[in-house]
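hey so i finally got around to running both of the ones u sent me last week. sorry it took forever, my laptop kept dying halfway thru and i had to restart like 3 times lol. anyway pasting them below in the order u listed, first the sequence line then the structure token line for each. didnt double check formatting much so if smth looks off just lmk and ill redo it

first one:
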Amino acid sequence: MINTPVFCITCDVDWASDYCIEETVNLLSSYGVKPTLFATHDSDAMRKFKLMDKIEVGIHPNFLPGSTHGSDYCSIIDKMLQMYPNAKTFRSHCFFDNVNITIEMLKRGIHYDSNLCLYLQPNIVPLNLDLGITRFPVFWEDDSHWINADADWNLESYLKDFFAPGLKILNFHPFNVAVNTPDQKYYFKVKKHIQTLSAEIINDVRYEGNGVRTFLIELLELLTKQHERFYTLDEIYQMFPVKDFLVQSDETKGRITEHNDYEYEQYWGMTDREKQEFLRASFEKRDAKDKYATSRDFNARELEINSIKKNISRKGTIFDMGCGNGYTLISLAKVFENWEMVGVDFSKNLIEGAMFLLNETKKELKSIPEFVFGDAIEYVKKIKSNSVGYVITERFIQNMPSVKVQKEVILEVHRILQAGGKFLMCEGSADGFKGLNELRESVGLYRIPETSSDNISAIRIPDKEFESYIENEVGLRLIAKNGFSSFFIISRVLHPLLVAPQRPRFDAKINELARLIQENLPPEAGYGGNVLWVFEKR
């Protein structure tokens, strides 16, 4: 989906005289517009403007019976491309179209067209033709307008349409611009001048009232005043790859494990050991070779990892509890040279994924992490006290079967940390989760459920309660609390509002931009569940 209007002006030349072409291009150039002209004939004016880089050129073949361009599709296309061999696009005269034309265009290197008119249709996006050509439909055309709008040239009546989201590819015929054609009756009256219109007779032919030319000028004035940009058709082709608008596979596939309603209901009645086994079996189903196998929101994951990096300084052993497929440690190993790094996870599948990613990235690494298949809760009990520089958890604590086990794990973390060692606890904040939901609800979005079939086990951290427990009872000092409020406000509130009723996607461009913005802002908590608490052992 395109969330704003994207303007592009094109012109079907339709055998207009060089005077008409010069009039139109000069008018558009005065407003900073570089149009795409679809050529019907050899034109000195077009060649001049092309050399001056004032226009893009496409071809405008006539496939209708009696065409002067040729007698069959191939000869017509070849003739047009001989005249304009560098043309990248086409639009057929009268939008004539069939699959044979598409095939022949593709053979000759044409990969996009504008061969369809969807008059005033909102939310126009690039279309993917079955053979591989991308189609950019026309939003508005001058002769379509005088037919559909009964020659109503009051721009104000159509502003809502022009400023609605979507592609706004406009098509003006140079002859209509030159003579200011008001309606079909007047067009037929002056049509005989198309190929010969000149400066000498323009005043005898140009319509004095409201028409195509006055409408164009009024539109250019308004859009320029509002600082709207005009794109060329080729720029739009580069900006909006058609794959972005196709129905795509689920971007979370292999990164979540769906559970049925029965499993969801049964989970909270299980013993601690049964819950852990249930989770282990769930992770065995993940695509462990995908570096984001444990994090469907990969932008949030990268923000977490960058925040972890910034809180590592003094050299020491890094221990990652519940390391998943090792992506965090591997990311750190690209930065920190000759460090000891150990990751433990209870999923054999994820540890195998970690070894795969390790081998894939070895040439990039400055340290070589060790990955261990085992129960991290039991493993940590065997680690020597006061021996570890850093302990990392990412959603490991929140996936413990109970608050009691959560606190027991944190006590073990304190035990193994060296004096001055850091506990980098990247977990789900109950306060941030609540704050985000309250914001969503206030703008009309539904509340994200505490748990769901694809997030069955989350016991989020009640911020003040756990901070007090860890500082006063465990003995670790809170030195930083990094959140990603700006990212979550954009990705979980603005993004859903913009694409509603469609499902927001984790791989949407706006989330990438939200991450970029967050990376350049203070890491404030308050909105969004992902928080990195940094505790230091006294």
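and the second one:
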Amino acid sequence: MRSRVRTARLFKKVVSSALKLPENLTVSQWAEKYRILDESSAFSGHWNNDVTPYLKDIMDSLNDRHIREINFVKSTQVGGTESLINMLGWVIMNDPAQCLIVYPTDDLAKDISTDRLRPSLLKTPEIEALFYENRSKILNLKFRGMNLYLNGANSPSKLASKPIKYLFFDEIDKLGGASSKEASPYNLAKERTKTHNFDKKIFTTSTPTLRSGYVWKLHEKADEQKEYFVPCPHCGEYITLKFKNIHIPGLVSRSLEEAHKEGATNEELAEGSVYVCQECGCLITDREKIKAVRKGEWRTVNKECVAYPEKVSFWINSLYSRFVTWKDIILEFLNTKDDPDEFQNFVNSWLAEPWEDSRLKTSEELVMERQTHLPALIVPSWAKMLTGGIDVQENCIYWTIRAWGDYLTSQNIAHGQGLSLQDVEDVMNSFYESEAHEKFLVSLVLVDSGNDTDNVYDFCALNPEWALPCKGSSNPMQTHFKLSVINKSSSKACGMNLVLVDTGKYKDMIAGRMKKANGRGSWMVYSGCDNDYAQQVTAEHKVNVRTQRGSRQEWVKKKSHGDNHYLDAEVYAMAAADIQGVRMLHLNNTVAPKNNATDGTTKEEEWINANDDWI
């Protein structure tokens, strides 16, 4: 009888557990009921949504049946990883299905699995009861009804198998890009969700790095972009917290340089920093900020779709964090503003903004400011030579002609687009008149040979008096340009010079001279210059790029799909001017001193030199 009773109880327990319906809880509700934080967290014990209220809507997006992709652009220490763990816990208990988390490397995935993820999940007894410890591995945690895979982005083969319903990316901007043999890790992992096209969930989170990074591109492509608005404690208006509104009392009546000369330290200057409401001008203290954030709400600032959005992106910076004071933010700014590497970390990790070097920052508005009074096709009176550059694309070409004068003073007099290289022969061989009706010919044109190499070589071989093939260098060079020789025996251009161009150095020169006011040494354009040209020549910015050997500054596109063909053409035109000796033009204006006897020449020799035909 005792055996039958035990069997009956066990049978009822198994049936009750198997037929038990999951609780109808959102992720944020589940977290408050079940999630337990360990001692490593700032607030140990049960999860409380009031500590980080801005995470509530982000987590609950997982429960929205219309949303397929959730993107979270964040600063550090605002709870991005914690929200991911809460989503995982909800999935394990309420909707067990195949999950995958992608980290930058396998080693990082192993460390996080052992030190962070597994201890955090198993802290909840209800999840521990569903965990199969003996069947689990470090990178494959098995729970009842599901597997949780952890993969590194450096293992492409592991990202291209097994269907996945829930896909998570932590610090996605640290993932590598596409290689010559494989697609990007993001796209490879995303392919695994195809079988769950109508119920898949993809969550991405990271601090931004560059505008071309994953998280910022996903933010720009989202159907709906959201920012967190908080009510001002004084006027009640809802505002977003911006760095420029933090008030530094120590710099009210003096500049930062003056304060440092007077002996003030950054710590002293940051003391007493407060936030100034952009609506009413009242001061918001750290204590008032915490209360305001609790009453905040996510609002849509940009929406690209008409119906329900499938891709939603949230953006927030460290100003909203209760763990960071106004003083902390200002002190970090003052300590890092003079070091590009450190300041990039401040912009990315504190302000949650993509980095670009403001010293070489260009814009289409700046190009329009460089317009002169001359229309297109007219050579300025100060010009001494014309050079050109041609950027070759698969289906068209872009060309530019630039006038050059003393001290690298220059002005674009014409630019355009053609279907083939033959379309620009007449353009480059035409005469261009100056204001004084003096006629000019283009002295040298560099033609990009990166695309359609054979055709470019043949074209330059047929026009050797004014055209040379060129190629951008993949690595920084000691000099701005270097002359090589084409050794392709099957080409008509065999034995012809090939110009290797350090494009980064010339882009530095263009950006620097673009900021000069019109006049000597400035980089200018003709009156009525079009917006497309202005956008393309400013399509790149210089940023810090981390490599295996450290970090270095490189020119990259501001937008991944932005055209930069006119910029490349202008680089080649400047390199052509360099080959023609543009840097020495001003020396031609110097009058040579008269010869005298102080150099050892006798009067008789002077007479003979001055009268070569005396015989």
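quick thing i noticed on the 2nd:
Residues 2-19 form the longest helix (18 residues).
anyway thats it, ttyl
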